[in-house]
Amino acid sequence: ETGVTQSPTHLIKTRGQQVTLRCSSQSGHNTVSWYQQALGQGPQFIFQYYREEENGRGNFPPRFSGLQFPNYSSELNVNALELDDSALYLCASRTAGTTKEQFFGPGTRLTVL
Amino acid sequence: DQQVKQNSPSLSVQEGRISILNCDYTNSMFDYFLWYKKYPAEGPTFLISISSIKDKNEDGRFTVFLNKSAKHLSLHIVPSQPGDSAVYFCAASEYYSGGGADGLTFGKGTHLIIQP
């Protein structure tokens, strides 16, 4: 069973640029969530995708957007990057149902200069 | 306003003894609670969870206790082992009657250090 994978591992961008991060769900999982983890903080929920549609969002502006594909892989897009967007971005997947355990990938470390 | 609080940034425990990590929450709509363990340069790893209809869940060396009236949960690790040294996050999920997203709300984490 393949776990959650994310790419790239590290990324450096400059303020104002756009970035796309990618995630492959764990086999059999149909729900994907994205989280932002700033230094010294816990992960913060950005949004969740189920059946290729966003079905919930945390307190993040519209310049954070995403996609989920038919194979349940997902992208996180961030436009007009700001210095505060520097963080570890985590993708988590699960199977929609009675349990709520989410399984995380290793994350993408984004640095905005 | 932090809805999930882990008030101890770090905790040092001797190998073989019990580690107790604490977590408090404020949102009464939380109905499911999870503990994750995180090593540097890795994503969080799921450890154990508990539904709000229970007050205890056990899995090997790990036991989670939930006190709903106090809005408090704790993770007990017995016996503590060197490999348990990591950052532990408490997380909570809110009940949505119409389905929809169930993003997790995390605390800031507690760094557990197991001393040999």
Largest sheet of chain A: 7 strands, mixed
What global shape of chain B is seen?
globular
DSSP helix fraction of chain B: under 10%
Strand runs of chain A, count = 11
| Spatial extent as radius of gyration of chain B | 14 Å
Largest sheet of chain B: 6 strands, mixed
* Coarse shape of chain A: globular
Helix content of chain A: under 10%
- The number of helical elements of chain A comes to 0
Whole-angstrom Rg of chain A: 13 Å
* Strand elements of chain B, count: 11
Order of helices and strands of chain A: EEEEEEEEEEE
Structural class of chain A: mainly beta
Largest interface: A-B, 28 and 25 residues
Mean pLDDT level of chain A: 93
Low-pLDDT parts of chain A are none
Q: Which oligomerization state do the chains in this entry correspond to?
A: heterodimer
* SS class of chain B: mainly beta
Could you give the order of the helices and strands of chain B? EEEEEEEEEEE
- Tally of helical runs of chain B: 0
User: What portion of the residues of chain B fall into strands of 2 or more residues?
Assistant: over 45%
Any descriptors?
A: 113 residues, 7-stranded mixed beta sheet, 4-stranded antiparallel beta sheet, B: 116 residues, mainly beta, 6-stranded mixed beta sheet, 5-stranded antiparallel beta sheet
